[in-house]
TrEMBL record:
This is Gx transporter family protein. The chain crosses the membrane at residues 12-30, 42-60, 66-95, 107-131, 143-163. Pfam families: Hpre_diP_synt_I (PF07456). The keyword Transmembrane applies.
Length: 195
């Protein structure tokens, strides 16, 4: 990777991380739409994690995710919120990355995002159970799974739309697909020329 290409990648990673942090901080001011699941959030900053997974190789997408956690915690979190977010986010990230290996013929961007939403809740509740030294915390999992499915669906629709409609994301996705010799996740009718 040349200097120009390396600088371009650093700017892209920093931009994604900054967007994730800003979205995460702003989301704290949005009331939860999930009245049946107290404490559940939409997880809009996970949109950036989805974008990173589909546009960057592992060594760069993990940097975006880690920067998101660290900077969000430093700018307005506590140690416990960092631990919960980190546990949920890392489990979500690795499960989405693993599921992506199935390819676009077996699973969609939306399906991967839904799995990420549910796994985020599993990770957070597992961290809470370990900290509380009680597995009874996991009794809340069925309720949080519903919010994870709904939030993952919303994030997946947003991610799929952005990947298909924003030209720079299409470029990065195409480069990633070609470098990893994988099929493209983009809508084929849009791929040749974006008009």
């Amino acid at each position: 990777m040349g200097v120009k290409s390396s600088n371009r990648m650093m700017v892209y990673i920093a931009t994604l991380a900054a967007q994730a942090v800003i979205i995460g901080l702003l989301e704290r001011f949005i009331p939860s739409p999930f009245s049946f699941a107290p404490g559940a959030k939409l997880g809009l900053s996970n949109l950036i994690s989805v974008i990173a997974i589909f546009t960057l190789p592992f060594k760069y997408s993990i940097q975006v995710v880690l920067l998101k956690f660290i900077l969000t915690a430093l700018l307005g979190g506590t140690l416990s919120t960092f631990i919960y977010s980190f546990a949920g986010g890392m489990l979500s990230y690795f499960m989405m990355l693993l599921t992506k290996q199935l390819g676009p013929k077996r699973v969609s961007v939306i399906g991967i995002s839904i799995l990420g939403g549910v796994m985020h809740n599993v990770g957070q509740l597992s961290a809470a159970a370990l900290m509380a030294r009680s597995w009874s915390v996991l009794n809340y999992l069925p309720v949080l799974s519903i919010s994870g499915i709904l939030a993952g669906f919303a994030v997946g629709i947003g991610g799929n739309y952005l990947l298909n409609r924003i030209s720079i994301l299409r470029v990065y996705h195409t480069e990633l697909s070609l470098s990893q010799k994988q099929e493209s996740w983009l809508n084929q009718e849009l791929e040749p020329n974006e008009k």
